[in-house]
Specification:
The relative contact order is 0.17. The chain is globular. The two termini are 30 Å apart. It contains twelve helices and twelve strands. It has a seven-stranded mixed sheet with strand order 2-8-7-6-5-3-4, sandwiched between helices. A three-stranded antiparallel sheet has the order 9-10-12. The chain has a two-stranded parallel sheet with strand order 1-11. By secondary structure, the chain is α/β, with parallel strands linked by helices. It is 40% helix and 14% strand. β3, α4 and β4 form a beta-alpha-beta unit.
Length: 383
């Protein structure tokens, strides 16, 4: 046993085909894409070819795609662009379970600039109420920012219905789709989304590369200004190899979304069935909701998530407790707190997230050791 990686919502291994696509831009065509010689022209061509590949996955115009350093930068760029477009509007709507790269800039806007940030609650399944969203939108609402799929539970939200509501009310809608893209098909030609963010390293591409889609006619105000790259909307010399890898990763993801979802769903369902059958007092958080096929979030009563993660790691199995940006944080997940998970379960949570490079044999290996690890973590407690 060993080297089982079940933390793919934190980051994914680079697909070997992605690595191969990147190598020429590290070794041969390493020029600055803004240079006029063949090295620069080849680098520029690689970027534009990648833009076409990402556009094909999203079914979006390539001209509306802005490459960034990752999903966090893209989320910040979307938020600031929306609020600066209507400085007279000081109200923003979001949810209690968003990623930190959404909640942190919104908190900053509230603290430093007097914005009112309305945070929608979720129920015990991780869902929120569309009626409550409709009631929350006001004439002075500058932005609604809601994710497409939760990074901890995998719970899916109705992006099309949210977008239609926002469009009806003439309010910008930003969707953090970092966990969604590559796992479910999207058609931005028809989906009513104004801003949408994705990240390469969540779909077997390289770290340090992300993207903001901005619908035609919606404003984008650059946060990084300089020499005019990305049509002046995100300047600085581009991460050429990373962008090329991003494009290849999107091409690979788009070629087999349904097949990969079926594969992952089968492994996830076997994992959850085994956990529930073999380990008492275990609950699948968000298990009754529509979810990403690759994600299981499970809490064990009177157990220690930190102890279980360490024990699994010593056996060569990588899982997490919640979002990677908080992996060193001993406090329970803000997502599970928002879902009102009982205190007796809250601290014994594991997030297990699969990829197409995992196997059913690995699932069985984890199921063989997990009951004993949970029991060891529970020593001294009566269920």
């Amino acid at each position: 046993m060993g080297n089982i990686y079940f933390d793919n919502n934190a980051t994914t291994p680079i697909d070997p085909a992605v690595r191969e696509a990147m190598l020429p831009y590290l070794e041969q065509w390493f020029g600055n894409p803004s240079s006029g010689h063949r090295f620069g022209e080849a680098a520029h061509g690689g970027i534009e070819a990648a833009r076409q590949q990402v556009a094909a996955l999203l079914q979006a115009p390539p001209s509306r795609l802005i490459f960034t350093s990752g999903g966090s930068e893209a989320n910040n760029l979307a938020i600031w662009s929306a609020v600066l477009a209507h400085p007279e509007r000081k109200h923003i709507v979001t949810s209690a379970v968003e990623h930190a790269s959404v909640l942190a800039p919104l908190a900053f806007l509230q603290e430093k600039f007097g914005y009112e940030v309305e945070i929608l609650p979720v129920d015990q399944g991780g869902d929120f109420d569309l009626v409550a969203l409709a009631a929350a939108i006001r004439p002075d609402t500058a932005l609604v920012s809601l994710m497409g799929a939760n990074n901890e539970t995998g719970v899916l939200w109705p992006v099309e219905r949210i977008g239609a509501l926002c469009r009806e009310r003439a309010v910008f809608f930003h969707c953090d789709a970092v966990q969604l893209v590559g796992k479910q098909s999207l058609d931005l030609a028809t989906l009513p989304v104004d801003y949408l963010t994705i990240s390469a390293h969540k779909l077997h591409g390289p770290k340090g590369t992300g993207l903001l889609y901005a619908r035609r006619m919606v404003p984008v105000t650059p946060m990084i200004m300089g020499s005019g790259q990305e049509h002046g909307l995100r300047t600085g010399t581009e991460n050429v190899a990373g962008i090329v890898g991003f494009g290849k990763a999107c091409q690979l993801a788009g070629s087999a979304i349904a097949e990969h979802a079926e594969l992952l769903g089968g492994m996830r369902d076997r994992l959850e069935a085994g956990i529930v059958a073999e380990i008492p007092a275990a609950q699948i958080n968000g298990g009754a909701m529509a979810r990403l096929a690759n994600t299981t979030n499970v809490s064990f009563k009177h157990a220690s998530g930190a102890a279980m993660i360490q024990e699994l790691d010593e056996r060569g199995i990588a899982v997490s407790a919640h979002a990677a940006c908080h992996s060193g944080d001993l406090d329970p997940s803000h997502v599970l707190r928002a879902m009102a998970v009982a205190e007796s379960y809250l601290h014994g949570t594991l997030r297990i997230s699969l990829s197409r490079f995992n196997t059913m044999a690995e699932v069985e290996e984890v199921l063989a050791v997990l009951p004993g690890i949970v029991a060891k973590s529970r020593q001294g407690f009566a269920l």
